[in-house]
Amino acid sequence: MIEWSRQGQIQQAQWRSESGAPAPRRVVTADDTLAADTAYRMACEGTGLLWQGDFQNARMLLQALMRRADAKSGKAGKSAKPRKSAAKAAEKAAAATPAEAFHLHRQAQAQRARVLASVLIPLEGDYSIDLRRAPDWRHACTEAWGPATGERSVATLRELLGLVGAHEWRKKGVEVPALGAPPLNRIHPHYGVFSPVRGEYVGLVADTALPSKTLAFDIGVGTGVLSAVLARRGVQRVVATDQDPRALACARENLQRLGVMPQVELLQADLFPPGRAPLVVCNPPWVPARASSPIEHAVYDEGSRMLKGFLAGLSDHLEPGGEGWLILSDLAEHLGLRPRTQLLEWIADAGLVVRGRHDVKPHHAKAADAGDALHAARAAEVTSLWRLAAA
After folding, report:
1. CA–CA distance, 59 with 21 (Å, rounded to integer)
2. How far apart are CA 180 and CA 114, in angstroms?
3. Which residues 6+ apart lie within 8 Å of 29 measured at CB?
4. If we measure between CA atoms, which residue out of 320, 246, 237, 314 comes closest to residue 280?
5. Which of the residues 134, 157, 236, 278 could staple to 55 if both were Cys, CB 3.0 to 4.6 A apart?
6. Where are the beta strands (DSSP E) in 277-372?
7. DSSP designation for 300
8. How far is Cα 112 from Cα 106, in angstroms, rounded to an integer?
């Protein structure tokens, strides 16, 4: 619960945070009279600004905080006045090793996120927002959080905007050419489940020759996109696992919509289902670093836990002559976070051999963004499908 004072009365509400961030230690009410510079100073001090004014002005304030945070980190546009701290940060990043530059980038992202999380929005017990010109986001909140409990709550405006953005993506869906011709080739990601916007890894699974069409395991099903591709390719039965109930619900909805659910069995499990299969597919997170929110677990895997777990258990879940398909970006190698020799050692230590490898260059926007802090690593990135077998 968080508390604040309004007209001399103490108010309380439940604190909501998808990332698990703690509530601000100090919360003050704020409205349309609050100057952006004052709000930025308070946000940097860790004060939560519980909005009581016009909702659209809260959105404008968030944009103003974003401009100030970007100017401090050196991301401001040409018209913005540069800051000395931004110049120092740029010099420090330029002199850093790739690994140091990555950690500096993550630190700057975390600081920016803390500042932008300072604008707080009160929600009524049915998820409605009792502010002037506030939108009706009750349906999007229910999708993300489940049915309303009747308790008042408070969430950051930034998280609410992300929640509504996810709601729109869920309605619209993401076209996946590897699933065939429209309209039955769209994946609809749920809130908190990573969207298959980077389609190069899906194409690798769609184009690599199958060792068998009888059975496949899909480890870490997510939205269900790889299970759907395997089913569309004629695999008779797919057993797909995930730890996250949201992912399993998302995969079930997508597989039903695509008409392949009869071929797929979904299980809540950490890595492997029971038994063996002639094909085991896994697309683990590719960067060995700590995730700062649940959805980041699709990208960041602290200590390479999932990658090492998949490799260590693969031979025990492969049928004789079977293949394990490891789909992995080498971004971590270019960032100096995990050398190629380490990956090859893990493969050998697990009693596995490499039968082949198929590579593709990513086509996402950041790979071509020279202004991105990690541009050199992203421009060199390659995503590979490693065909692994028991030695």
Report:
1. 21
2. 42
3. 4, 5, 6, 49, 50, 51, 52
4. 314
5. 134
6. 277-282, 318-329, 352-360
7. B
8. 10
* Cα separation values, 355 from 43, 59, 312, Å: 53, 53, 17
Q: Residue 116 in contact with residue 160, Cβ under 8 Å?
A: no
> Reduced to 3 states, what is the DSSP secondary structure of residue 216?
strand
**3-state class (DSSP) for residue 207:** helix
Distance CA 185, CA 173 (A): 9
Q: How many residues does the chain have?
A: 391
CA-angle at 106, arms to 100 and 112, nearest 5°:
135
Rounded CA separation 153/12 (Å) = 8
Q: How many CB atoms within 10 Å of residue 311?
A: 24
Q: What is the C-alpha to C-alpha distance for residues 289 and 125, in angstroms, rounded to an integer?
A: 37
Q: What is the pTM of this model?
A: 0.90
Degrees, nearest 5: CA angle 160-25-144: 20
Q: Please give the DSSP secondary-structure letter assigned to residue 366.
A: G
Q: Which residues pair with 326 in a beta bridge?
A: 282, 386
Which residues, including other chains, have CB under 8 Å from residue 81's CB and lie 6 or more apart?
A: 71
